Amino acid sequence: MKWCRLQSSGKAVYGIVEGSQIIEAQGSPFARYRRTSRKHALRSAKLLVPVVPPTLYASGVANYQAHVDWANAFFKRAPTPLPTRADIGYRATSALLPHGGTIVIPKDASDAIHYENELVVVVGKTAKHLSRDEALSCVLGYTIGNDMSERTWQGMDRTFWRSKNTDTFKPMGPWIETDFDLGKAMSITRINGKEVSRFVTGKFLFDIQYYISEITKYVTLHPGDAIWMGTDGATLPPLKHGDVVECEITGIGVLRNSVKREK
Amino acid sequence: MKWCRLQSSGKAVYGIVEGSQIIEAQGSPFARYRRTSRKHALRSAKLLVPVVPPTLYASGVANYQAHVDWANAFFKRAPTPLPTRADIGYRATSALLPHGGTIVIPKDASDAIHYENELVVVVGKTAKHLSRDEALSCVLGYTIGNDMSERTWQGMDRTFWRSKNTDTFKPMGPWIETDFDLGKAMSITRINGKEVSRFVTGKFLFDIQYYISEITKYVTLHPGDAIWMGTDGATLPPLKHGDVVECEITGIGVLRNSVKREK
């Protein structure tokens, strides 16, 4: 089942994507809902980010082997041993951008504007003290995030606030897929239709069960919270004015955004 | 004017504190409001955090000279030159706790459980690209935050997620004061009624105008966003089971919380 959020008569509503149609729902996937008789054409619907998470978590530094190696080379750091436990970070919801929206590069940003195609876990239920075995019981479904990064600022700012949370730098969508087979999924990125990156989505250093059980030792997860799971490999070439970037995860869909540089 | 948020007939509503009374409002200080005829006794009202910020900013690492010096000694770091620009960080709203609520120390936390009495700036209007001179125009008012920190975890976790965002570790309140004279304010902390810390609230390394103009170069501030401005000096003695901690900022009020250790 695919849950999207869309604008309908000026209001944000949830909808269920079925083929080329969206069935408008009353309520939300995080509480009660019912299907209504209102339908929208998927092609022309104005999609919103599928949820505005109360808290937006991100796997810290890196959660895939080849991305650690690439980032060390990119930032000219000595090769570091792989992390032995996950670093849990945050992103700001002020930076969220829906499928179809325009990523705006600030005037004073460098040219090192990189995509990061990431699996996003969407929490459906309040959860605390979940074991590894129980961890997935709080998950509603999965969507796609593009963890846009300005690499010069990333090297300068400990908290990544500008590098990763500049307005429009967190595209997320197009919808939440509740029936997702992580075992089969591939993450594929295209710029202007040309494939630039491909990796096995599930080859994490620290898996989803690990993140959920670690977080819920100390912090309550709430319906709508999202965990961005990191990216693998290189994130090149850099994005520039006029580009269209597509982050696909097979079994979920394609998150597509255009890129503009502020003048 | 003092804006509080409270529970009234099972709903969260805004109220205006006048002497020993709260006048219930319809609407909120972030949009339109009107005073209603419903009144509550301040003494017995169940206060909530005065706002749940869409984004909760925190001054990074340190924003007062004496706290930088103390923290270097505490963490056994070499004396570092003072920062030349502010580090902008985040806290998670999942950790918020109202005035009167109980701070719960997790079972496996160390004894290094520290208070940090902080001025909190509450944003009232959407703002982008504000100059220093324009910066305060987006501010609704000020409240108090206690940036509770588990110092052992703080030394281990780059993102401070556990050390500062464990459930209940972000007391904030009791209300938002819209008429606040920063020039005269003192920050005073008491444990079980005994004064343990006192500093001049406004002696920041980087001031409020700086934070707002820096943030809004890249990020839109939204109504309800909050910026925690850091603390000064030592944050000792550590808090333990059974303590009551009071963070006062003169001209705003007193944020009081009890402390419990999980068994």
Topology diagram in text:
The structure is a homodimer of 263-residue chains.
Chain A: E1 2-8, E2 11-18, E3 21-27, E4 33-41, E5 47-48, E6 56-59, H1 65-74, E7 88-91, E8 96-97, E9 102-105, E10 113-114, E11 117-123, E12 139-146, E13 149-150, H2 151-156, H3 161-165, E14 170-177, E15 186-191, E16 194-200, H4 208-218, E17 226-228, E18 244-249, E19 253-261
Parallel strand pairs in A: 6-17, 8-14, 9-19
Antiparallel strand pairs in A: 1-2, 1-5, 1-14, 2-3, 3-4, 6-7, 10-13, 11-12, 11-17, 12-14, 15-16, 15-18, 18-19
What report would you give on this structure?
2 copies of one chain form a homodimer. Chain A has 263 residues and is mostly beta strands. Chain A has 2 domains: 1-48, FAH (SH3 type barrels, Roll), CATH 2.30.30.370; 49-261, Fumarylacetoacetase-like, C-terminal domain (Fumarylacetoacetate hydrolase, domain 2). The first copy, chain A, has 4 helices and 19 strands. Chain A has helices at 65-74, 151-156, 161-165, 208-218; strands at 2-8, 11-18, 21-27, 33-41, 47-48, 56-59, 88-91, 96-97, 102-105, 113-114, 117-123, 139-146, 149-150, 170-177, 186-191, 194-200, 226-228, 244-249, 253-261. In chain A, strands 1, 2, 3, 4, 5, 6, 7, 8, 11, 12, 14 and 17 form a 12-stranded mixed sheet that branches. In chain A, strands 9-19-18-15-16 form a 5-stranded mixed sheet, with no helix packed on it. In chain A, β1 (2-8) and β2 (11-18) form a beta hairpin. The mean pLDDT of chain A is 95.
